Amino acid sequence: MASLRIGIAGAGLLGRLLASSLSGRGHAVEVFDPAHGPGAGADPRSESASQAAAWTAAGMLSPVAELERAGPELFALGLRSCLLWPGIVQGLQMPVTLDFQGSLLLAHRSDAGAAQRVLSLLQARAGAEHQPQSLTLQQLAALEPSVHGPALAWLLPGEGRIHTIEAMQALAAQASLQGTRWHWSRAVQEVQPGILKTASGTHRFDHVFDVRGVGARPEVPVRGVRGEVFWLHAPGVLLQRPLRLLHPRYSVYLVPRPGDLVVVGASEIESEDRSPVSLRSTLELLSAAHSAIPALAEARLLHSESNLRPALDDNLPLLSQAPGMTRINGLYRHGWLIAPALVEQALQGFAA
Ligand SMILES: Cc1cc2nc3c(=O)[nH]c(=O)nc-3n(C[C@H](O)[C@H](O)[C@H](O)COP(=O)(O)OP(=O)(O)OC[C@H]3O[C@@H](n4cnc5c(N)ncnc54)[C@H](O)[C@@H]3O)c2cc1C
Fold it and tell me: Among residues 225, 256, 224, 260, which one has the least CA distance to residue 241?
């Protein structure tokens, strides 16, 4: 196919995946975003941090665990993306932490009833190939010696994690190397087939992608769902894989990152409030994390952060295509899990 002029509104997860993929195929790509630069978001403590949810995400790649709240469409997208991520990461010049050593579901004995309800859902929805594997306490100790307390544990083989900040930086760097032009500090006010409108004028392309997340209103009826995460510095706590604690009142997960970091998340609140994390979320999430890994008591709380997940009414992703325009939105709490498969579908539909 001849080289096309492509305009992308939004430099979040989808925008960077699209830019890297399309510029790699020889298209002339331009990306517009109100963030001040490609790294605005890499340091969420900075005043000019980007609002992309992708920076805040813990990076769980959990097609099976997410079946508690998701159906077969999401499951299929998640499984496909877990196959696609290694190839994407290998094609990037900068390193990105990505592994698929499985994830663990944990529960305290007192919460066995609630845990069993979740387990039954996963067992019914996951199919024979992806069943959770029950672990003895000895097996759990061999896999994750830092975990003490939960009496019940299951391994979800094949699940993984990606370092979201490394991936955001590496995708942008790759797209730049391949000739992508970035228009930072430039919000797109309107998206039409072949047209992106900004305060500086009308920009014309052969095809445009609208991937503005919660910024796509009013064209897309998207809402923001608040989520809060914590970064702990925990030398001595050696976690190999993501953990999820099944609890009747709140759900908490822990994702290890290089540098002795553990990301603890995430609240899920029907609110578009981007203000700092609440005392309640701090107490609930960190108490739950400590109950599974007592050694976290001496961890240092480096940072806390809140952001909005872009979600539609049905909490399912939207991929709509028309001549000259593609919209993708509503990735909700599963963006890193499903984005590669959605981008693959979008590019097949657009025959790029
Ligand atoms: C606390 C939290 C934890 C999460 N954890 C996980 C997880 O563990 N696993 C997982 O799979 N997913 C997780 N997610 C979800 C994931 O981050 C999102 O689904 C994903 O980032 C959505 O990607 P996106 O590109 O659609 O939107 P975003 O990443 O939000 O990017 C949207 C981009 O559009 C830009 N934009 C906005 N308005 C405009 C405009 N007018 N013009 C141009 N650009 C604009 C923004 O600046 C931003 O750069 C989490 C999210 C949160 C908040």
Answer: 256
What lies within 8 Å, CB to CB, of 171 at 6+ separation is 16, 17, 19, 20, 92
Q: Specify the ligand 1 atom closest to the Cα of 50.
A: 47
Give Cα 87 distance to the centre of its chain: 18
What is the domain count for the chain?
A: 2
Instruction: Look at ligand 1, atom 20, and give the residue with the nearest C-alpha.
Output: 335
Residue type, 318: L
Q: Which domain holds residue 177?
A: 5-57+164-222+313-350
Q: Position 80: which residue type?
A: R
Question: Which ligand 1 atom sits nearest the alpha carbon of residue 215?
Answer: 38
CA distance 182 to 186: 9
- CB-based burial of residue 216 (10 Å sphere; 0-12 exposed, 13-18 middle, 19+ buried)? buried
Residue 72 lies in a domain: no
In this model, does residue 179 exceed pLDDT 90?
yes
Per residue in 48-61, pLDDT tens? 556 899 999 999 99
**Shortest-distance Cα residue to atom 27 of ligand 1:** 213
Is 138 within 8 Å of 277 (Cβ atoms)? no
Tokens of 343: 């981008």
Mutate to test the pocket of ligand 1, among 243, 331, 337, 343 (most ligand atoms within 8 A of CB): 331
Q: What is the whole-number distance in angstroms between the Cα of residue 14 and the centre of ligand 1? A: 8
Asked which of 6-10, 12-16, 45-49, 126-130 is least confident by mean pLDDT, the reply is 45-49
Ligand 1 atom showing the smallest separation from residue 308 Cα: 53
Q: Is residue 87 part of a domain?
A: no
Shared domain for 10 and 152, answered yes or no, is: no
In the β-sheet with 160-162, what is the strand arrangement from edge to edge?
A: 60-61, 160-162, 98-99
Separation in Å, CA 143 to CA 64, 135, 196, 243, 260: 19, 10, 50, 11, 17
